Amino acid sequence: MHDVAIIGAGIIGLAVAAALQDDGRQVLLLDRRGVAQETSRGNAGALAFSDILPLASPGIMRQAPRWLLDPLGPLAIPPAYFPTILPWLMRFWRASRPNRADASLAAQAGLMALAVAETPGMLDRAGAGHMVRRDGSLQLYESEAELAAVMPGWQARARHGIAFEHVRGPRLAELQPGLHPRLVAGTFVPGWHTVSDPYDVACRLADRVTARGGQIETRAVLRVAAAEGGVQVKFADGTTLLAHRAVIAAGAWSKPLAQGLGDRIPLETERGYNTTLPPGAFDLRRQLIFGGHGFVATPLSTGLRIGGAVELGGLKLPPNMARADAMLRRAAAFLPGLRTEGGQQWMGFRPSLPDSLPVIGPASATPHVVYAFGHGHLGLTQAAATGRIVADLIAGRSPPIPLGPFRPTRF
Ligand SMILES: Cc1cc2nc3c(=O)[nH]c(=O)nc-3n(C[C@H](O)[C@H](O)[C@H](O)COP(=O)(O)OP(=O)(O)OC[C@H]3O[C@@H](n4cnc5c(N)ncnc54)[C@H](O)[C@@H]3O)c2cc1C
Predict the structure, then answer these.
(1) pLDDT, tens digit, for every residue of 239-262?
(2) Whose CA is nearest to atom 16 of ligand 1?
(3) The domain that contains 55 carries what CATH number?
């Protein structure tokens, strides 16, 4: 009998494993592709601690129609997938109403405060503390009107104690030289961090898990079920194993595993794209956020990563790398001098719930299975916090924040 089986070795599964090991538990990570080969591999590397505004918000509902008009714009829904995603969109729309969005914001702020507290320790213990860049982020605007339109969001962040500075002129140029003059203002957030490369961070965590006696196996899980005294994990090859506890951290692929345990969770994927240019493609001083265009530019040790966007296209449609090209072209317009050749393109599957909050809590069928998925745009940022909560649940301790907003049965 294994102690704790964790399905998924992305950043969430790895952080859960690390937290359980801190509690003295034995962990077995099961991933059909190996360590961080999916979404956690190629993301934008932000520890986006100030990103407490839910995507489902009145603001996005105002932006969405304009964005949808551009087939390669920040938000796209491939027509073939529209009927499938419609129920999720309806839930997203309901979650965007002001009172619901306020509740999501409060929950997100609580989880984020926990992320701020837990992340440095997790990274330090894994020997990855030096991989964090603490130079903040700079969100950029093409007009004063664009800044004015997002001001309510900044006021909400201020109410939650987040520090920022609106900048223009020489201060803007000092924070990032070489911007196109049409970028007239910015918001600098000093408490926003980035990592040198998200894949390197995941590998460091995985190394630490195995160094402490954890096992990582490349195996595809078909089903997880309650069993006498624990949990049975059934693999795609027909074999099974037993564990005292299991954690489902299979990112965007968690839905059928939860469904097998009686939980119908409206998990969808927001596909995102980027291009990683060779190091030296631009003298980027910190992560730049082009909020009006739905992409960011991140300085990594492995290069300069440009991308973002949301494509609500499910798990099966082939990637449309024209989206990565489009964001790179826009970045070149904002950053004259950007060398755009030699890039590597990537698409990842953000695991997303319609209220922009993850699912963290026990399965309906058995308290021996805990869910930890659906972190959307914020999985790297919230991994350590999620690990802490899951370890508390498994140890029978009361978690540091109220879990009501994250419960699997909320839909
Ligand atoms: C373009 C883009 C940019 C992003 N930028 C950021 C950012 O800057 N900051 C941030 O915090 N977040 C960011 N994110 C979001 C972040 O990458 C995700 O929230 C996070 O990676 C999710 O981690 P995960 O472990 O839940 O999922 P994944 O990394 O997808 O891991 C899930 C794992 O489960 C495995 N799996 C699935 N099904 C099974 C099965 N049946 N059996 C066995 N294994 C299985 C998969 O192989 C996979 O390895 C970004 C995402 C994208 C797409």
Answers:
(1) 999 999 999 999 999 999 999 999
(2) 379
(3) 3.50.50.60
